[in-house]
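TICKET: design request
STATUS: open
ATTACHED STRUCTURE:
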């Protein structure tokens, strides 16, 4: 496997591990309870943890500069925050609990969009290196 392909796979793997850590291991009840309240510090903290934990990916796929890296991380923070907020709005308005199929579909779509965000970030970083 060439170095470029290996870097791509390592970066995506890093993002997936980071995501599990931030969404399922480090997320507190405070963050979870407040992600559906727009502008609440709990939801912003959760998205911020995701953003901070994404920084080490630049050791695998270096950004062309600090401003570029900052914009990419800020973009992830904004996307993550709004995807979580939207999912919480949908689940709350429909009064879905984990017993409802809709809850799991909403969670699955939420996770899929987060993973697509990582694919986009890696694509942007690879394109910036070309």
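STATUS: resolved
RESOLUTION: sequence designed for all positions
ATTACHED SEQUENCE:
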């Amino acid at each position: 496997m060439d170095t470029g392909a290996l870097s791509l796979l390592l970066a995506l793997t890093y993002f997936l591990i980071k995501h599990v850590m931030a969404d399922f291991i480090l997320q507190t009840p405070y963050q979870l309870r407040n992600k559906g309240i727009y502008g609440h510090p709990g939801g912003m903290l959760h998205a911020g943890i995701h953003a901070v934990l994404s920084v080490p990916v630049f050791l695998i796929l270096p950004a062309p500069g600090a401003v570029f890296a900052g914009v990419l991380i800020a973009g992830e923070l904004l996307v993550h925050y709004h995807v979580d907020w939207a999912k919480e709005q949908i689940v709350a308005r429909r009064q879905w609990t984990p017993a409802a199929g809709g809850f799991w579909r909403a969670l699955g779509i939420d996770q899929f969009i987060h993973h697509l965000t990582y694919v986009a970030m890696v694509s942007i970083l690879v394109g910036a290196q070309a």
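CLOSING REMARK: Residues 34 and 42 are 5 Å apart (CA to CA). The two ends are 18 Å apart (CA to CA).
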